[in-house]
NIF system FeS cluster assembly NifU N-terminal domain-containing protein
Amino acid sequence: MAEALYSLDILRLSMQLRPDDKLSAPQSTHEVTSRVCGGILSVELSLDENDRISDFAIRAKSCALGQASAAILDRHIIGLNVDEIRVQHAKLLAILGKDEATRHHQNNLDNQNSLDNPNSVTDIKVWPELSFLQSARDYPARHSAILLPYDALFGAMEKLKTP
């Protein structure tokens, strides 16, 4: 099992996070702890005037899968808005075999992305590194660690909405 889950690609990604990654003046921060595995993820972020991620820091005390997922998010997040991130999240859910959640999310995106919307996110290409996480598809107990970076991110973004 360990060989299948913890491939060389996963291990390499998990080593890319900086344990002291912090922003000097984040607009929002959020920390989450997995009730399943005990992994802890902290996110700090700032948005630009177009509500796109302009600065981002993530720290993970998690298994290699959680750290790899966090590293993938960290690698691609700058310049994205929440809808574009939700597309990647939905693609990750599909990779992990969580089809019902993916269908529900896709229906919400389809409603938001009509032909009249110039900011449509339906043409976004999946981040190639997400495929490395497919090895965990048959291990649902590992899914919470993989999804933890997104829980932290969406928590931080939600805090920006509240006054």
Summary: The mean pLDDT is 84. The longest strand covers residues 53-61. Residues 2-161 form a domain with the Sufe protein. Chain: A fold (CATH 3.90.1010.10).
